[in-house]
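General statements about sequence and structure are easier to judge against a single worked case. For one protein, we set the task of working out the structure tokens from the amino acid sequence alone. The sequence in question and its structure tokens are set out directly beneath this paragraph.
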Amino acid sequence: MLGTLNGALEVRGIRLAPEDIAAEVEGINRLRDRMPTLEEIIVHYRLRIPAEARETVDRALAGHGAKCPTARSLEGAIKVTWTADIEETPTRS
């Protein structure tokens, strides 16, 4: 999902340095018939963006899950959710 989000931002003219875009991912396993089974994936993004790009970033975040091949492949079998911490940086002059 991180690659899909990064691509969505780049298409919109927002290029973030590697240190400005990151994700932590947690998989939730539950026992089903005494077997651990992956049931949920939680993605938490950390983004540092130019302040003037906030609306564009919010729109990209809102739609990136539907455009992600991995998330779409897991749809109906494994719940995929995301959250984001966004730090806005002042416009450079």
About this structure: The helical segments are 2-11, 54-67, 69-74. The chain has three helices and three strands. The beta strands are 21-32, 35-50, 79-89.
